[in-house]
Every structure is written in C-alpha cells, then in structure tokens.
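User: My instructor asked us to take a sequence, write out its structure as tokens, and then describe one feature of it. I'm not sure where to start. Here is the sequence I was given:
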Amino acid sequence: MKVMLENGSPNKKGSTYTALKQIQDTLREEEIDSEIYQIGHKDIRGCIDCRKCSELGKCVFDDEVNSFVEKAEEFDGFIFGGPVYYGNVNPTLTNFMTRVFFSSFFGGKRIFRLKPAAAVASARRAGTMTAIDTINRFFTWGEMPIISSSYWNVIYGNNADEALQDIEGLRTMTVLARNMAWFLKIKELSIKEGIELPEVTK
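Assistant: Let's start with the prediction itself. The structure tokens for your sequence are:
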C-alpha cells in the first residue's frame, strides 16, 4: 500500500513539507509506503475547459499534470497539502488539481475513485479552513473517501521552524496518518474477504 503526499508549496522544505513529513514518518511506523511529490515550484497553467482530454485521454497541455496522472495510478491513497495565499490555498495547487481531476475523469481514467484522500493546509495565521474546503471539493467530486483527524488538518507557522513548534498541528498530522493507514488496511482486508467495490454508475 502506498500513499502519495503532494506538496503544493514552492518552498520545498517549508511549513507544508513539515506537516507532510510528520504524516510520512507516521505512515512508515504503520508500515505504509509513501512518497512526497513536489509540485509547488512548477509552472502549472490553469484548465481552459477545451475538453481535448476526452479525445486524447490526457490533458492537451503535456506537462507535470500528465506525468502525475500516470504515476498516480500506482498509489492507494492521497494527501494534498498547500500553503495559504490571500486567504485560500495557493493557485499552483488549485490549477494542478483542477487539471489532474478534470483530465483524468474526462480522459477515461477513474484513478482516484474510492481511494482515500486528505487535505492539509499550512498558514502563518488565517485562511486554513477555506483552503481545506477548497481541496476537499476535488475529493467529493472524485468519489474519494475523505480521511479526517482529531482536529482540522492544519499546521501554523511562517516557516518550517515555526511549524515544528505547533505541537497540536503535528499531533493532528500524526492522527491523520494513523487514520489513513487504518482505512487502507480495512479496505485491503475487505477486498481479500470478497467485498467488491461498488460498480461505476454511468
């Protein structure tokens, strides 16, 4: 079982990374493999609703989005994390997620369906709840069970050092990782026991 952790921050080792690293370390303790996928520093343009993905089977803009969709098929769970810019999650992450979910769905790839997912937001102070809500909308559209924690999945700090001082935030990430691991194990066990996933409704 493998979980992909998407770092939507341009700061490769900043506050968002600190939260994701806490999750990754806990997943390792739960014997779940994971990978941190850095996208925040990339130049990701937004979706233009051209619907070419329905013809090509992938986004017409052949960049990091198409590479990610191919790679994502190998993973069993996903955690998307991003920093707050002007009261919401940063545009690079939303551009990326919009094209990933849109092109994979209309391109005929239901790679996210019934795979557990979680949103993580980092901020100096405000905007985390809006960011979490924004990310979660992609999951509900993609038929993805949302994994929660003992608090909202947020961490506070203007940089990695400050984020490491957010003890409650780090604990929240630990609980989130354990809940993700539990869900994945239960899902795997249910499939072994012959409980099939629901059929796709067309």
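For the description part of your assignment, you could build on this observation: Residues 167-192 form the longest helix (26 residues). Try explaining in your own words what that tells you about the chain.
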